[in-house]
Amino acid sequence: MPSLVDSARRLPLVTDLLSRCSFPPSNTHVDCAVSGGADSVALVVLACAANLKVTAWHVDHGLRENSQTEAELVAQLAAQLGAQFETRTVSVEHGANIEARAREARYGALPKGVMTGHTADDQAETILINLLRGSGTRGLAGMQPTAQRPLLHIRRSETQALCDALGISVFNDPSNDDERFQRNRIRHEVLPLLESLAKRDLVPVLTRQADLLRDDDDLLNELAGSLDPTDAIALANAPIALSRRAIRKWLTHPLVPDSATVERVLEVARGNTLACDIGLGRQVRRSQQRLRISEAETSK
How many CB atoms sit inside 10 A of residue 50's CB? Predict the structure, then answer.
């Protein structure tokens, strides 16, 4: 009887999906985050079909009753695929921002460089979320297509089709239908409405736009990298798109500055004001045509 991996390799669907994945060369060791949903299950199946040395990692957040059952299903799948298995348990309290806190706890428990099952549909949703947040080109460029996201050119419907074809039972997380979460409303309400208006599938459209914006953004960042953000004259005379990027990169640590802060620093560079607040009790001040970060002055 053929193994699950052998069965997968014989499927034309798997051949097609692997041609669109960005996996490293065969025999490379990779870590895969596997929740038990169709996307992450497809990730570990495809990684094994690509002859990678796979460790499947499952994180139990302890937010649902019988959540240990999900870990058991992932462990069984890993065994069927000949993959290694690791599980971790984290504690996440119910309350505000639970989705973000769970994500932070999850990544804190997973190994560095772990692969995730983000798909093209996740990319499209991320782009719309960033649009609503008022993100610039970096946000509209979506998630970066790195080695940690090998399925970004695969559709969510295809990961489910793969699991169905192999007879793999997957876990459907009920939180994916919770309308309290913005991403779920984007997925179930906003995207379907936009597609109804456009009369077309918008996921390929949004992901192509993201690819174009990412190329533009990378070029602008490269050009801005040669601009000294502490040189007030150079900053004031450079194209504003480059000046803004140079300032944003300079001030990003520990927090990314908002647009208003960047504009205030530009006013200092232009000589329209001597200093400006940049948050966290700091100021940018101009002296002898140089910009410097200093502690904000307080009145005594």
Answer: 23
**Residue recorded with tokens 């194209």:** 239
pLDDT digits (tens, 9 = 90+) for 261-290: 999 999 999 999 999 999 989 999 999 999
Residue 140 to residue 48: CA distance in whole angstroms: 32
CA pair distance 152, 143, nearest whole angstrom: 9
Q: Where are the domains of the chain?
A: 4-119+154-177, 225-295
Which of 56, 198, 205 is CA-nearest to residue 120? Answer: 205
pTM listed for this prediction: 0.85
Evaluate whether 44 touches 54 at the Cβ level (below 8 Å): yes
Is domain 4-119+154-177 in CATH 3.40.50.620, yes or no? yes
Convert 5-43 to b/e letters by CB count within 10 Å (16 or more is b). Answer: bebbbebeebeebbeebebeeeeeebbbbbbbbbbbbbb
